[in-house]
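1st attempt posting a full record on here, be nice pls
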Amino acid sequence: MTAKIAYDDVEVGTELPAQSFPVTRATLVQYAGASGDFNPIHWNERFAKEVGLPDVIAHGMFTMAEAIRVVTDWTGDPGAVVEYGVRFTKPVVVPDDDKGAVIEVTGKVAAKLDDRKVRVDLTVTSAGQKVLGMSRAVVRLA
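the predicted structure (as tokens):
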């Protein structure tokens, strides 16, 4: 597969379609099973609070994975991502209710690089707080 977005059609400042990703306690249990990360801070409210967290929190790698979906959906090809990194700034707190939490993601082309690559900067928030900082992907376009 190749990216469906052409390098020549993209400018610095191009905004990617924003997306919202709901997260419930059930989502975290499913992710724990898939990832093998059964740390109790991701499913046991009592334990999470005992170690100083406000409540159960989403896995950092889960949050990262949801955020990069904005880029892979935009390019149409997950293989177009050649580099991706973030800083974890705040946890995604997932209350035990019908709503859970929501991860909000926006992205913008921040730079055009050599070899048909662009850098996309992501803004990732939950409950009005930035949960990932320095969230950047380098993507090779068509």
